[in-house]
DNA sequence: CTGTTAGCGCATTCAT
DNA sequence: ATGAATGCGCTAACAG
């Protein structure tokens, strides 16, 4: 395994020059650089990340913390972020942290890993920064992240105290509801939020708030939300709840497309005409939304992830030139990306207006 | 940022003892261990991964190379592998390597990253081992992986020269076809393979071979495969191709459920009754297969990933005790996990037999 | 533009 | 069971 000394010997320069040449620092004569690169190439030399980190204090790695990888939003974020960071030479350390539950004690001899130890032990000293994807955080976790001593960015929601890239979820809820209102619906329910429940969390809660706003502005009473996890299976369950729980609304806002798709299927298999009897609107513009003809509020997922990654890269750059200290106010960035309505075949004028 | 020396001073022992105590080595007196752990805890000491790697030669990290993260098979593998490795204290370095295409040159001053540099530079010295998920490998890449100098495991196909965990894809194609044959179909097509095309690749090619075998055993002539990428959108395209390209078969084997779902939708929106006019069978048992009533050959994805991860962990353990050298024959492991048929509503006896 | 000199923070001998 | 000494391979001053 060739080391930097081998390259230095082969080139007849010092290891310092090899290091500089290979990193592309300006202060190396062009011919020298070329010779060094050639030698490194032919020796198959690859710098040791460990040695480099130890000497420089930088790891050239970023932690990516996510509660899921198979759900659409998260997988898109992961792909986008990995690609942006990789381009700039950063490695991605993937950390999957299931929402809400403590990890099981492992068979290891050492202390079993908990959320706490993962947050600190793993991320501290191993990475130069951390990106967190829409993970419900309790206050203590937020403090832990801020105490990591390096930059942390949040994607998918706006969380106070952390630089965040997301969308305006209140506006999303409002616009989805308004679309149904404009079509003439007055009896509108929302599926997939805990409402103002103290356990309620970020996006679903904010979308419900938008729904409440829109209903209020139309002089209508908002219904309490139908609780439901953001999955197709849960959407189906919610549909059954809707079908058996009193009069069916004519319009339904699903806080995510996955819920919307579940709703669509279950309502139709129960013989309910969508959009004839019930209109359904989702949020996301999931790739399958088109397949199912689901009207939705599209959110730019890759764009959120890319904006966050690029912003982080720029911050890391500034940190480097300022000698490792995070600039004041680094954590005040809050960016909302625009959403837009995508009309498909799951929403229509309510039957009562078509055949009065 | 507390260092091992701080802990040593606080405890009144040497750094060597701190190191041993914190790693749970046997040769430390119980009371000493406790004192050290307490001190480390209260000082918030976290060992530096870089220093530890440099000193020990082990990184406690594993590279995970995948062509996709949003596709179901891959996301399940990623989640499973991360979880298994994390439990044993290994970090996961995620590397997304799009199949087939060279990466674009980045804006960096250094050589733009290519598949080649990623395979070597990134993985060599940064990780103790690498797991590769069903990525079409050309021979050179395979050699590169083997030349990495550390353990490499392949998941999702059986590749000669690399320890592999997968399923019997020929049998999968055979069983899917046999299911249709048993129902009475004779006019059966397969969608999603390049057949014996030299560019053809692993699982789809093997599943086509199984189809050919089953057709042959039934005394029928196999049709050339309908080419199609393994996505819903491509499945829809393939359906249109089927609809316009001569007589429609009565049975269709889709080499993946995503294709199958696309087929189902497009056929039905064209007014073709499934399974009345055409039966469709997929492969995977994708979570959405149930939603669509798609009959399929289920494969155990999490199990493949877990088997590979655990096998790797065991190998790494052996490597450690033998002083860092890979044991002879480490690369000869080839494991096939069982699949099974899941009958749903997309396959039935052909109409010709129902109304003779 | 290049060489010299020091560590970076640990794990590991080899002692005891 | 514990301590002292050594070096992993590189980068960062500091000279020149």
TrEMBL record, chains A, B:
Pfam families: LacI, Peripla_BP_3. It comes from the Bacteria. Residues 2-56 form the HTH lacI-type domain. The keyword Transcription regulation applies. Keywords: DNA-binding, Transcription, Transcription regulation. PROSITE patterns: HTH_LACI_1, HTH_LACI_2. One of its GO terms (molecular function) is DNA binding. SMART domains: HTH_LACI. This is LacI family DNA-binding transcriptional regulator. It comes from Aquipuribacter nitratireducens.
